Amino acid sequence: MSLKAARDIATEARQMTVRGIDPIAEREVKRRDAQRNLHLLRDVADDAFEARKAELKGDGVAGRWFSPLGNHILPKLGGVPVAGIDQIAVRDTLAPIWHDKAETARKAANRLRIVMQHAAALGLNVDLQAVDKARALLGKQRHEVKNIEALPWHDVPGFYQSLGDGVTELALRLLCLTAARSAAVRFATPDHFDLDVRVWTIPAIHMKGRKGQTGDFRVPLSDEAVTVGREAMRHGGMVLFPGQKGKPISDMTMSKYMRVRGMAARPHGLRSSFRTWAEETGQPYEVAETALGHKLGNKVERAYQRSDLIEKRAVLMEKWSNLVTGKAGGKVVQIRAAT
After folding, report:
1. How sure is the predictor about 11, in pLDDT bands with cuts at 50, 70 and 90?
2. What are the φ and ψ backbone dihedral angles of 276, each rounded to 5 degrees?
């Protein structure tokens, strides 16, 4: 340090003392501020994720909470001090996916906002409005939300009866008969089923909803669903529908099966097929919604109405099964693979 620089520092210290400011304490404050401003977004994001694990299903090991950050935010901004992130940086990061991958961009923006809030809670000097200001700069998304393609319910019997007895086809059979989500089917294990009492219990971790707010869900099994369950159990293994190395079939396996057959509909759309049938044939609203695992009413109503309507759902699912298997009568339209 030069003599002039030393004199300047001494002069500044004397001036601060005259103003009633402790120069040593002020220097410590500046040092701490500088230290806080060196926190990288990548490190703060990791810390925010750790703090939220307790409320994520499976402690977030599936990666769905973190992946929008990891795939679209951190590659560009991960090495930037969180205090230096502004709306321009956020806008430039989200711009490539803002319209073409609208839902992914929305999730990435929401996760980034949570990380910025976490940074503020740590005492870091951040712009909590950076994400909202970036949204304003990006404008309204052009992407139109499209519902997952569903098979018209009149065509479900033909599709069901075209299925064979392979692992994927048995999984699709169970999906058709129960209107469950594909994840519940893919991760189903023999111990989830009590075929004697005709009930499949889906663990809370495989149900949609936040951890701690979603419980296990009982699914009544029709005669046909019990038959499918017994057939699937012949494959043995830890899971009912094993893929490579005995692990559950992937989330794309059933979709690919339908796509290869030239179908626009996707597995999740079978839930819509069931719900549309229930609506158009006059089935009880609350029973049909509960069969899909949907919550009904507000918190107060749910606090008093605790029945899962399983007996009524058993009747409903048997009716649906009779339609799907052709036992309900009527012409069955066969669905064949595209040639």
Report:
1. confident
2. -65, -40
- Dump pLDDT digits (tens) for 249-271: 988 999 999 999 999 999 999 99
Q: What are phi and psi of 239, to 5 degrees?
A: -120, 160
Whole-number Å distance between alpha carbons of 130 and 142: 22
Query: How many other CB atoms are found less than 10 A from the CB of residue 174?
Result: 23
Domain at 21-138: CATH code: 1.10.150.130
Helix/strand/coil for 285: helix
Integer Cα distance of 208 and 331 in angstroms? 35
- What does the domain layout of the chain look like in residue ranges? 21-138, 153-324
Check if 21-138 and 153-324 are the same fold. no
The answer to whether 315 and 278 are in contact (CB under 8 A) is no
Tokens of 106: 């929305």
Integer Cα distance of 208 and 221 in angstroms: 20
Return the CATH architecture of domain 153-324.
Orthogonal Bundle (1.10)
Q: What are phi and psi of 267, to 5 degrees?
A: -50, -45
- 288-322 per-position pLDDT tens digit: 999 999 887 667 566 656 678 999 999 999 999 99
Rounded distance between C-alpha atoms, residue 321 and residue 224, angstroms: 7
Residue with tokens 């309204």: 140
**Which residue is listed with tokens 């495989």?**
206
**Cα first-last separation, the chain:** 82
Cα–Cα distances in angstroms (integers) from residue 21 to residues 17, 29, 53, in the given order? 5, 12, 44
Segment 86-93 long-range contacts (CB within 8 Å, at least 24 positions apart): 86/127, 86/130, 86/133, 87/127, 87/129, 87/130, 87/131, 87/133, 87/134, 87/136, 87/137, 88/134, 88/137, 89/130, 90/130, 90/131, 90/133, 90/134, 91/134, 91/137, 91/138
- Are 177 and 225 in contact, with CB atoms under 8 Å apart? yes
